[in-house]
Amino acid sequence: MKANIEKFKLSYSFFQEKVNKNILFTLAELAEKTGWSTSTTRTYVGKKWKPFLSKEGELYRVLPSEFMYSEEEYIRMMSQVQKYSSNPYKPDLKENVESLVDKAKEAAILAIDIYNRPMTAFRTQGFTVMMIIAWTSLLHAIFEQTGVDYYHYDKEGAVKIVDGDKKAWELSKCIDECKELSHPVRENIKLFILLRNKIEHRFAPAFDLDICGECQALLLNFEDLIIQKFGNYYSLSTTLSIPLQVITTRAAWQYEVSKKLQSKHYNELKGFIDAYRAELSNEVFSDSRYSFRVYLVPKTGNHLSSSDTAIEFITQLSHIEIFRRFLNIKDSEAQKWFKNALTFCSDKNKKS
Questions:
Q1: Which DSSP category does 26 fall into?
Q2: Phi and psi of 2, rounded to 5°?
Q3: Dihedral, 295, 298, 304, 310 alpha carbons, nearest 10
């Protein structure tokens, strides 16, 4: 078995090289690289490699769009064990860990479903409750995988039992114990723990537009961590699409009416959110891991291929590159726009 795994690794590196260089190859070359016989490689073409190999005469080409495996995933695909080869992208997790990760992902998907429903009135409130469950399950899965004991104990040293089940750490305890979470991520989660408490125990008015940046960051942070710890198989993006947007003056007007109808409760909740933000450092408050803020700018294209992607996430661009991409102009023109913008801002500062 160990010898086979070594040959699997050699074949993976062989295919990866051919993908990177876009080179055709023969089965004899593959056999020489791996130590398999040519007949064995021919058998694997029919049984395992057919989805990502294209035959061109007597030569073969690896299709980049189909050969998307990591080395670990490729080895699982080559396995004779059905549960591994049938779903090679799924990580091999312990039963308890897998159950918690599945629960975390399902809770997050339900949270997004609630938030994106057009007629949902309890939008942010429902999203908050489900994301608290998602985050708690995810951190429990990480603790379970790494052997951290995440249960409460009584004074005698016995595990506390509540309604017949062992009492696990609540989310606030989890984020204190999970040292790898950054400070902005912790502060983001803490805000939603406090909001969840308010939602559960009293009337919570509509406050969607006041907290949407923090909601987006809570979700993106979750996505980053579940992929980091358990792989792309558990990514939320594989099951979701970007919702169509109709954020207009009319939507803002409706929101203002809703605030007035619930003014007392809204003002109390808005005051709480503002007070929480005021306690944050500027560094944390401006961090996208605490609150994800974006501009939605219409994208244009001056030829067919330039506008084939409707939505792109752009990060860490220079100011000139931002002007160039948003305005769809050449670098020289973008530099002029940037200089004019600096002059305008300088003049405005002098006047004020």
A1: -
A2: -65, -40
A3: 50
Coil, strand or helix at 105: helix
User: Is the CB of residue 183 less than 8 Å from the CB of residue 284?
Assistant: yes
Q: What is the pTM of this model?
A: 0.74
Q: Which two tokens stand for residue 251?
A: 């939507």
pLDDT tens, 133-147?
999 999 999 999 999
- In one letter, which amino acid is 99? S
Paired sense of beta strands 161-162 and 165-166, if any: antiparallel
SS3 at position 168: strand
Question: Is the per-residue pLDDT at 227 higher than 90?
Answer: yes
- Going from the C-alpha of 321 to that of each of 133, 313, 338, the distances in angstroms are 40, 14, 10
Name the band, by pLDDT with cuts 50, 70 and 90, for residue 100: very high
CA distance 86 to 77: 7
Tokens of 217: 């960051």
- Nearest CA to 143 out of 188, 174, 99, 164 is that of 174
Q: How far apart are CA 21 and CA 123, in angstroms?
A: 49
- At what angle are helices 183-201 and 123-146 packed, to 10 degrees? 130
- Count CB atoms within 10 A of the CB of residue 76: 22
d(CA 352, CA 338): 21
